């Protein structure tokens, strides 16, 4: 069903007004899915044209972690521009190795970013436990790691997430040293607000391989930019990983030269996806569903592609990575395959218990947004018909 934008808007206005306890009927759900497909098809077509205009665009695929020239026929895990040696090894581990193995410790943060998945509930994040680390969903002490390595093997890489590690960074050094001694690649995420020469040096000495600064969390603050420069003295790979928002793009452009001069290696342009916690901060932005999984503002990945083109044309000294929703799909497929999952198994999916139909009114009301192909609604789905 290639529903028209006019019919889609009429139906979604109705869906948005339904009481929370009322679910869609079977035909109504068919209409809703047709609308999501129309929006996504239009978004994909425009982005394909944008990607074609990016010079030197590379596709990371199995067997070619360095990347090969992109074309639309290639089943790419992800895309980037720049030198292969600058592309983060942690991303290669995530997409081609044993997946994104998260190590969690800290349940606190010193920022409250509008794009954060835990926005508004940061004071209610459960603790991991004194002396404990969450690894693969289980809880362990540091001294349990040798047993894990001997019984379950070693992952290609792990990442330190949840929430801001530098809130208690001194607790991390011993665990980092154990993973380093085991030959496992490690990367860490930080907003950089508490980073200084002392703790950055300690991280490097412990064996951290890669540090990723969420530069958008500080609005590209000068002290964080300087911390990135300092980190590069002690840690092999240093870069940026930030959800792409209009606010971040504006701040980045104002300090682009200072940022690129820090000596960092990469910039992961993360496509912003929303959940029930942060959706309200971007309500009114045109949205789309990617394969009925992540809900994202359309402009987010558009910003990533524009930055990749600019980086390629200007010859930035870093790799710029399109960490899109499609990349997240590839990540989950790779992890499921490494775990011996059945064909097509993936944990990628929608993060809303109830689809927020009102969030799609802005894109359907946008006169500049057109569907690729439209056709009249079939009998039984038209205005005046009883559609259950």
Sum this structure up briefly.
With 388 residues, this protein is of the alpha/beta class.
Describe the structure.
This protein folds into two domains: 1-40 and 357-362 and 370-388, no CATH class; 53-353, Aldolase class I (TIM Barrel, Alpha-Beta Barrel), CATH 3.20.20.70. Helix 6 packs parallel to helix 7. It has 388 residues and is an alpha/beta fold. Helix content is 36%, strand content 16%. The longest helix has 27 residues, at 26-52.
Task: Give me the secondary-structure topology.
Elements: H1 5-17, H2 26-52, E1 58-61, E2 64-69, E3 78-81, H3 89-96, E4 101-104, E5 133-135, E6 138-140, H4 145-152, E7 157-161, H5 173-181, E8 185-190, H6 197-206, E9 210-213, H7 222-234, E10 237-243, H8 246-254, H9 256-260, E11 266-270, E12 287-290, E13 294-297, H10 298-314, E14 319-323, H11 325-338, H12 361-365
Parallel strand pairs: 4-7, 7-8, 8-9, 9-10, 10-11, 11-14
Antiparallel strand pairs: 1-2, 1-3, 3-14, 4-5, 5-6, 12-13
Helix pairs in contact: 1-2, 2-10, 5-6, 6-7
């Amino acid at each position: 069903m290639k529903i028209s934008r006019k019919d889609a808007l009429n139906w979604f206005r109705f869906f948005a007004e339904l009481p929370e306890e009322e679910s869609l009927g079977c035909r109504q759900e068919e209409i809703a899915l047709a609308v999501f497909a129309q929006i996504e098809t239009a978004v994909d077509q425009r982005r394909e044209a944008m990607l074609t205009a990016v010079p030197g665009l590379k596709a990371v695929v199995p067997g070619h972690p360095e990347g090969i020239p992109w074309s639309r026929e290639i089943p790419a895990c992800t895309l980037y521009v720049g030198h292969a040696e600058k592309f983060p090894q942690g991303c290669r581990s995530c997409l081609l190795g044993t997946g994104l193995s998260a190590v969690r410790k800290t349940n606190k943060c010193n920022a409250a970013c509008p794009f954060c998945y835990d926005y508004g509930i940061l004071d209610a994040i459960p603790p991991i436990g004194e002396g404990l680390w969450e690894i693969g969903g289980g809880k362990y002490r540091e001294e349990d790691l040798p047993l894990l390595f001997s019984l379950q093997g070693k992952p290609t890489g792990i990442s330190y997430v949840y929430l801001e590690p530098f809130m208690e960074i001194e607790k991390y050094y011993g665990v980092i040293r154990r993973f380093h001694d085991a030959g496992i690649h490690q990367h860490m995420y930080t907003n950089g607000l508490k980073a200084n020469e002392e703790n950055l040096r300690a991280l490097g000495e412990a064996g951290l391989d890669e540090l990723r600064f969420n530069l958008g969390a500080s609005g590209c603050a000068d002290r964080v930019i300087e911390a990135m420069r300092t980190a590069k003295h002690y840690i092999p790979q240093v870069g940026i990983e930030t959800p792409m928002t209009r606010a971040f793009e504006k701040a980045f452009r104002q300090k682009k030269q200072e940022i690129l001069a820090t000596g960092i290696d990469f910039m992961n342009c993360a496509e912003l996806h929303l959940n029930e916690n942060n959706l309200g901060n971007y309500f009114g932005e045109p949205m789309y569903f990617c394969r009925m999984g992540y809900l994202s503002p359309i402009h987010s990945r558009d910003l990533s592609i524009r930055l990749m083109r600019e980086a390629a044309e200007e010859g930035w000294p870093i790799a710029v990575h399109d960490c899109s929703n499609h990349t997240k799909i590839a990540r989950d497929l790779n992890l499921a395959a490494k775990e011996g999952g059945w064909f097509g198994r993936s944990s990628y999916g929608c993060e809303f218990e109830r689809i927020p139909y009102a969030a799609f009114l802005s894109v359907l009301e946008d006169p500049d947004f057109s569907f690729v192909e439209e056709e009249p609604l079939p009998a039984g789905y038209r205005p005046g018909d009883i559609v259950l």
